[in-house]
Input
Amino acid sequence: MTDSIKFWAVVPAAGVGKRMNADRPKQYLELAGKTVIEHTLLRLLKADVFAAVVVAISEEDPYWPELEVSTHEKIITAAGGKERADSVLSALKSMRDLASDNDWVLVHDAARPCITATDIQHLIASLVNDEVGGILALSSHDTLKNVQGDSIVGTLDRRHIWRALTPQMFRYDLLKNALEAAEGNPAITDEASALELQGLQPKIVEGRPDNIKITRPEDLELAQFYMEHQHD
Ligand code: C5P
Output
């Protein structure tokens, strides 16, 4: 590893989270005495590897400035965008004068508050010498069906199916160029898919199953359970 290479965290946090049916975006719901996003950011800061954590926030967001963590010296705020990929690209553009092309960027969902230092360190250690980068992922234990309407039209070979988690770790220039090239493409639901469109093959690194994304109301209780049982 070259000493001058830095690691940056980018946290898209400009989503509304419709599936939660809540009165505020899901990253601001309470979980174990803090908001979801505070847990996420404090864990990234505690990992102690990032030069800064760049958070993409919606311009109409009244909740963010109320949080103490918003003024932390290692937190930088960028404008959010229409889709997740737009928010990530906006964050990357805001770092233009800070990051070098070869620096590593770890993009992590604000809505994944159970991220652990072990997962972050495992991802970095696995990919730091890789040309392209890659993502935390989980293999699939369930049998997976291809469905049209309400009928099964096939069974997927689950040995080849992985669930994409975050962080997703790529070089600054490679990721920014890939997201710029893919702008407006609705198929880009994570960073890896933008790199795949460039013909690249990001790696998978097996992550921990407790790194869940808060999507539905019951996920908050599950996240609290995991937090109470995590020891790092
Ligand atoms: O909605 P979903 O769970 O896929 O969102 C994943 C992450 O992307 C969340 O942290 C959300 O706040 C963020 N996001 C964003 N800008 C958008 C949509 C989602 O930063 N326009």
Q: What stands out?
A: DSSP finds six helices and eleven strands in the chain. The mean pLDDT is 96. Residues 36-47 form the longest helix (12 residues).
